[in-house]
Amino acid sequence: MQADRAAPRQRLEQERRALPFLLPALGVLCLVSLYPLIQGVSRVFYAYRALSQQNVFVGLENFRLLFQDPTFARAFLNSLVWVATSVGGMFFLSYILATMLNSRFLRFRRIFRTLTLIPWALPGVVVSLTWRYIFLVNGPLNTVLAALGVANPPSWITDPQLALWTCIAANTWMGIPFVTIMLLAGLQSIDRQIVEAAAMDGASYLQAQWHVIMPSIKQVVLIVLTLQTIWTFNSFDIVFVLTKGGPGSASITLPLYAYQNAFMYYQAGYGAAIGVIILLVLVFAVVLYIREVLQ
Amino acid sequence: MRLHPAKQVLLHVAVVVSIAMLAFPIVLLVFNSLKTEMDIFTSPMGAPTHVTWENFRHVLAETSFLVNLKNSAIVAFSTVLLSVLVTAPAGYALSRFRFRGRTLFSIWLLATQSFPGIIMVLGLFTVLRTYGLLNRLFGLVIMHTSFSMPFSIWLLKGYFDKIPTALEEAAQIDGCTRLQSLMRIVLPLSVPGLLAVATFSLLLSWNEFFFALVIMRDNAHYTLPVFLSRFLGSGGVVQWGPLSAAALLVSIPVFVLFLLGQRYLVSGLTGGAIK
Q1: How many C-beta atoms lie closer than 10 Å to residue B60's C-beta?
Q2: Is B146 an interface residue toward A (CB < 8 Å)?
Q3: Which terminus has fewer CB within 10 Å in chain B: N or C?
Q4: Of B49, B82, B107, B67, nearest to B227 (Cα)?
Q5: Is the Cβ of A230 closer than 8 Å to some Cβ of chain B?
Q6: Which residue of B has its CA nearest to A264?
Q7: pLDDT digit string, tens, across residues B131-175
Q8: What is the ipTM of this complex?
Q9: Helix (H, G, I), strand (E, B) or coil at A54
Q10: If you ran DSSP here, which 8-state letter would residue A153 be given?
Q11: How far apart are CA A99 and CA A180, in angstroms?
Q12: Residue A264 carries which DSSP code?
């Protein structure tokens, strides 16, 4: 930075040279990210009137309607549950799996590690329809439950209490490979001697996890958690294919409700307003994520 | 340190069970694709009692699968190509040059990952309509490329950072331009990074659903994930045999390429792309 300030002419020269290399990326970014963002956000001030078949300026009316809309409240709460439990579940299960895969007492580590990646390569749509099959009333899960002696296994997808949880299960399953691989890379970078020294000093297993291992992989943990929070909050295909947000709006999430408004009820402004709410909720995660990556 | 033999056995059992849980849904798909509807109904999770290829024949001969496959292939491979062409120079600029707005560019790039699909798609409608790209595969290619940019540029910057500048300086003394030194020195040394970008973009584009669903207007332009969701239908009786066969046919091509490329993707991810 100091050197930059000391030699403005040299920096100008560097900028002149850098520009052609950046131009294609800048072009794509402006065309499909900057301009659409501005254009999309500006939609929140308009509403479609069926009578005149026109978009009219309504100011902040869409937001006022949002806060009175019980389906929006449902979608908002569902989204919070969906993110907290999916990301929490992914992290918990992946941490255990990564710890096991990192053990030097494990044979065939490379093969196991590659097999862990399997769900990552599947399209979200395939994952959802597979889980929809697993959760069928007469499907595999209930067959197992019946065999275990459960008298009345539930109808998972059509039960308002359970529908969202079927989506959470599928999403957690799909996210495990990415989180596991990232955490494993973090764990591999820790010097084993430090952990062993902690054990020698009398630290219990959990103490060593919390006081030695967690601080060493803090950055990877933060990046994985923030990224997955962003991805899961914006996720569309799992819920769309598994439950369509139903029954009723029992399992609806914000991106799905935004889609329904914009493309089924022709209320683009209302859909965009939901999108702005998503963006506002995510700001904290995004700032944290960018700070960690740029460090 | 040694581990008690019983504990070591337990460790292996736990890992095998975890992997089985991750692979089990795919085994179900394979079983169902080879079963008759009757067979699926009577034993929802067992192996096929007698193998039938009828489900695959049905998907290939009596649905629009091949049309949608062609769309997916065009979109995915164009996305891979465009991603590499756009992200390699940008990663190089971030790695080698100091310029005003460098931090701002990085922040913007990373922030794009959080933009809600609904806002982007509503805003994009105007752009795509203006340039006549609505319902065109190329519109989707540009979208997918922009999704792959944050990860890809970051990953390549990390790769380029590790290549000593001395190599390039020597070449520049011999009269190489910056572009030539990127093409002839830096890129050949970054092949694993380029393969990671290719694998990532391929996976992203092939599997992407929301934009493919919303931007395309008719079946002739749909990609495979949209084909699948329409195959599943909305309510009514689902034909799980043909659906499973279709799901496998959609997944297999990229699954194979993923297995070939995962090595680079994993080392790119863990070796500096994200950190």
Answers
A1: 14
A2: yes
A3: N
A4: B67
A5: yes
A6: B214
A7: 777 788 988 999 999 999 998 998 999 889 888 888 888 888 888
A8: 0.89
A9: strand
A10: -
A11: 9
A12: T
Residue B160: name the closest of B104, B229, B90 by CA: B90
- Residue B209 to residue A125, Cβ atoms within 8 A: yes
Bridge partners (DSSP) of residue A54 are: A49
Phi-psi region of A149 (alpha: psi -120 to 50; beta: other; left: phi over 0): left
Contacts of A78 (CB under 8 A, 6+ apart): A164, A251, A252, A253
Whether B25 has its CB under 8 Å from any CB of chain A: the answer is yes
The answer to whether the beta carbons of residues B122 and A241 sit under 8 Å apart is no
Please tell me the distance in Å from A30's CA to the nearest CA on chain B: 10
Contact B228 A129 (CB under 8 A): yes
Q: What does the alpha-carbon distance between residue A270 and residue A276 come to, in Å, rounded to a whole number?
A: 10
Q: What angle do CA A125, B152, A176 make, to 5 degrees?
A: 45
**Which residues have a Cβ under 8 Å from the Cβ of B170 and sit 6 or more positions away?**
none
> What tokens does A264 get?
């089924």
Instruction: Measure the CA–CA gap between A4 and A11, rounded to whole angstroms.
Output: 6
Query: How far apart are the C-alpha atoms of A161 and A250, rounded to whole Å?
Result: 7
Bridge partners of A276? none
CB within 8 Å: B178 and A259: no
CB contact, 8 Å: B110 with chain A? yes
Q: Tokens 């710890």: give the residue.
A: A99
A180, A101 contact by CB (below 8 A): yes
Q: How far is B143 from chain A (nearest CA, A)?
A: 7
Q: How many Å apart are CA B154 and CA A264, to the nearest integer?
A: 37
Q: What is the pLDDT of residue B272?
A: 55
Buried/exposed A223-250: b ≥16 CB within 10 Å, e otherwise: bbbbbbbbbbbbbbbbbbbbbbbbeebb
Q: What is the DSSP string of B228-254?
A: HHHHH-SSS---HHHHHHHHHHHHHHH
Q: Where are the domains of chain A?
A: 2-57, 64-294
* Omega within 30 of 0 (cis) for the link into A247: yes
Helices A124-134 and A163-188, packing angle to 10 deg: 120
| β-strand partners of A56 | A47
A64-294: CATH number: 1.10.3720.10
How does pLDDT run across A126-173, given as a tens digit for each residue?
Answer: 999 999 999 988 888 998 898 898 888 888 998 999 999 999 999 999
Q: In the numeric block, which tokens belong to residue A27? A: 């072009």
How far, in Å, are A55, A71, B165 from residue B214 at the CA level?
A: 20, 22, 45
Instruction: Give the span between the Cα atoms of B245 and B34, in whole angstroms.
Output: 8
Domains located in chain B, CATH noted: 1-52 (no CATH), 63-273 (1.10.3720.10)
Q: Is the pLDDT assigned to residue B275 strictly greater than 50?
A: no
- Nearest Cα to Cα of residue A239 among A250, A227, A226: A250
Higher pLDDT, A135 or B267: A135
**Integer CA distances (angstroms), A278 to A124, A235, B139, in order:** 21, 11, 25
Q: Phi then psi for A55, rounded to 5 degrees? A: -85, 120
